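Hi W., the pyridoxal-5'-phosphate complex you wanted:
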Amino acid sequence: MQLRIPGPTPCPPQALEAMGRQMMNHRGKEFGEILRSTTERLKQAFQTKGDVLLLTASGTGGMEAAIVNTLSPGDKVLSISNGFFGERFGDIAQAYSAEVIRLAFEWGRPVDPDAVEKALSGHSDIKAVLVVHNETSTGMTNQLEEISAVVRKFGRLLLVDAISSLGCINLPTDDWHCDVVVTASQKGWMVPPGLAMVGVSERAWRAHAQAKMPRYYWDFGKAKSLLEKWQTPWTPAVSIFYALNVTLDLMLGEGLDNVFARHARVAEVTRNGVNSLGLSLFVDEKYSSNTVTAVNASDKIDVPELVRVLRDEHEVIISGGQGKISGKIFRIGHLGLVCEDDIKAVLEALRKALPQAEKG
Ligand code: PLP
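Structure:
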């Protein structure tokens, strides 16, 4: 079976084996050592000298934590969106009573840094900017470096959903002045869902000291003070740590640059293969993601049927579209444990399945 959705991703056998290990005392020395070495290697992957906190949560928990730890009710935030997850980030801020100014682009269209600049010029009291690095719903990577340069010019906090990019697509957290960066274990990290990893800058800590949004489980302060003893405030997802300990070795052993290059190569094979089947991409190739490719279904392809045929007859699992583009696109995930041959097999299955999924 080939699981080619944009997360959860397949786990290498070594990670699955590691998870079969007996439980241990999460307040004991042995777990402390796992937490220490995991945190230190994650800092390398995040390319940060700041803190990286591990929260037992899915990615959305990490997004919520980013907001409640840096903002107060009534704070103005600029929520940039061009897809399903960008909208979610703004919704979370709104749920916690931030005053959300939405800068929305059409789904699948790039964020225009000039529009970000205009929005920030028009509202002098914006506290933070929310943005998704890799919009999984549309297969688009936003130009985070350019967006971050604008945000920095205005001295605002930058909160980044990098859930489906970090560890796969270059994101130098410190160089790009990202204040809170969130990713999740079931994406490029090749382990099951259960951990959100969150990078926190010095500036974010200063914001945290002033932030009044209600928080308890998500409190970065509690996480940081326990991390000083190599513990977590609440019982962590111990088995996922066992697995992550193994996959971080694999990733750093391969070398981050090589991991990024592999994702770029695999994505190119995917895009070329899709084009050669006579299909078109949902986003302009210049912005297309190296972790997930979104393909236009046009009026000709019945997406649920395509997903079914691939699953039942070819043992390939892909995703349909989300939200308002459900039925209009399908998505092939290629992040984490993936190589060119995996994708060639997916493309071959797609070639065979397409005629069966054509609308009559
Ligand atoms: N943001 C992005 C960009 C994602 O890809 C996802 C998951 O697909 C999420 C947020 C939500 O993460 P989770 O489902 O782990 O809560």
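The mean pLDDT is 98.

W.
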